[in-house]
Design a protein that fits this description.
The protein is an all-alpha fold. The protein has a single domain, classed as Up-down Bundle (Growth Hormone, Chain: A). The chain is globular.
């Protein structure tokens, strides 16, 4: 087995992690540029793209379903097939009159398939490479090909859209429909090749042998958990907006006052809620969310009791030092996640709105080339540093280096330096993030391998981290709307502090054993 494990990474890592990145990059980065070109405002973009990114946050809920049923290889290849179909449908949707609404639904469903495929991929990685030192070494290798997938989207696809719009005179919706079509075809071709490269290690088995009917029961248990999670998401968002309205009425109350952006808009900005008065729409959302939480949580308690899925969840949350682990997962990347969500919009927004007013081709070069090259090199460097120096000795330099470059975005928002400095800023920022992210991934792997449900525990950890990113995206959109880009990047620096403090309380003796 050790000899086989050493031979596996070069065979399966490139394809699976290249493909893993594509739906994530399309939803979390490229979609913002697409919808900006379609004329959608910043706040709905950040809110709805954060919502359709929720499946990656819900990996913590989907993990036991993947862990307890079927082989990880089956989940990987099946998920890639569904994602390819979803990308093809998304391409067609962008050429329709309801491109925003229809594409959001399709990309949201594709994200669910991606989330389950990602869970299986990460679990498969730990099964195929069981040694901790080899995991650390290949974490940079893994990250590199993931970033190549991101490069394909943020440079390749965004650049193609710019060429079609600026040089071929293709209308923006049609250009993006063609661009997504190209991406879908390439994804399908790589997926077909990849199906031959993914090995069949003996260790790739469900955690436990399920009894007849348990697969179906696990699916319904997962549905119950998802209903609860979606209800909580909508409830938090609705309550936040209603609290903003209350604050505006109590403290300001003026249409053009200093807190004017806290009030609800006069007309509903979302086509999903068109036709309802703004306040009524909020009450409807809150009522639906409360119903989902009530039904879902009742169903969860009844269905999970005594099941293997229930034990997979409870064993993660009952582990020693769980509060410290939770704080680390939630806050370590929060500030950087705010930058990741808003930086493409900062580059694209006109100067009058506080942005830099760049076109898609330039953004593709900055975010897609310099940024991705930076994060690739950072991922490789981070893996080497941790494997040579050790996790505990390297974590503080890596963490500080990860967050300090966010100051450069604050400088850019104040100075508006033009195009040239942004190449260096994005490269430095993404290199530092790549280094720091390797440490984050390795800590999650060490936490996951403390019990029997390794894939479930890693999925719960990564899902909680993705939920943090979704919340950070919503928060960043609200802050930017209220304070502009300077206020946003100041808030980013403030939000790095809790993540740094969480490192003090991690159970380092257990993580390095």
């Amino acid at each position: 087995m050790p000899v086989q494990a050493r031979k596996l990474p070069p065979l399966f890592v490139p394809g699976v992690y290249f493909l893993q990145a594509i739906p994530v990059a399309l939803v979390q980065e490229v979609a913002s540029i697409v919808y900006k070109d379609l004329g959608v405002a910043n706040e709905p973009i950040t809110r709805w793209t954060s919502l359709i990114a929720l499946p990656w946050a819900l990996q913590m809920l989907l993990g036991p379903l993947v862990d307890l049923n079927f082989r990880k290889r089956q989940w990987i290849l099946g998920g890639q097939f569904v994602i390819a179909i979803g990308l093809i449908l998304a391409a067609f949707s962008l050429g329709t009159a309801s491109a925003f609404e229809l594409s959001l639904v399709i990309l949201g469903l594709t994200a669910f398939a991606s989330a389950m495929c990602n869970i299986a991929t990460d679990g498969f990685y730990m099964l195929a490479i069981p040694d901790h030192r080899e995991q650390a070494t290949f974490a940079g290798f893994q990250s590199t090909f993931y970033r190549f997938g991101r490069l394909f989207c943020t440079f390749g696809l965004v650049g193609v859209s710019g060429l079609l719009m600026n040089h071929a005179g293709v209308p923006k919706p049609t250009a993006w429909a063609l661009t997504f079509g190209i991406g879908a075809v390439i994804y399908a071709l790589v997926s077909a090749i990849n199906s031959r490269a993914v090995p069949r290690p003996d260790a790739d088995q469900p955690v436990v042998a399920t009894e007849p009917g348990e697969n179906r029961a696990n699916i319904w248990r997962t549905v119950a958990v998802l209903l609860t999670g979606i209800g909580v998401y909508f409830a938090v968002g609705t309550v936040t907006r209603l609290l903003g309205q209350v604050i505006w009425q109590s403290v300001d109350g003026q249409v053009d006052g200093p807190l004017k952006n806290w009030r609800l808009p006069v007309e509903n900005p979302d086509a999903f809620l068109a036709g309802l008065p703004v306040m009524n729409a909020q009450y409807v959302q809150l009522a639906v969310a409360a119903g989902l939480i009530l039904v879902g949580s009742t169903w969860v308690r009844a269905s999970m009791r005594g099941s293997e899925m229930g034990r997979a969840f409870s064993s993660f949350f009952r582990q020693p030092s769980f509060p410290a682990i939770l704080a680390f997962v939630v806050f370590y990347r929060f500030g950087e996640a705010m930058v990741s969500k808003m930086s493409p919009l900062f580059l694209k927004d006109p100067v009058a709105s506080g942005g830099l007013g760049l076109n898609n081709e330039t953004i593709a070069q900055i975010k897609g080339v310099m940024g991705v090259v930076g994060i690739i090199l950072g991922g490789i460097a981070g893996g080497i540093i941790v494997s040579k120096v050790g996790l505990r000795k390297s974590i503080w330099p890596l963490a500080i280096g990860m967050h300090a470059p966010n100051l450069l975005y604050l400088w850019a928002a104040i100075q508006h330096p033009g195009i040239a400095p942004m190449y260096a800023i994005d490269f430095i920022d993404q290199f530092a993030y790549g280094v720091g992210y390797v440490a984050y991934t390795i800590i999650l792997m060490r936490v996951a391998q403390q019990g029997a449900f390794k894939t479930s525990h890693f999925a719960i950890g990564t899902g909680m981290g993705a939920l943090c990113i979704a919340i950070a995206g919503i928060v960043s959109g609200v802050i930017q709307q209220q304070t502009g880009y300077v206020g946003l990047f100041i808030a980013v620096m403030v939000m790095t502090v809790p993540g740094m403090l969480s490192l003090v309380f991690l159970p380092w003796d257990r993580l390095e054993s």
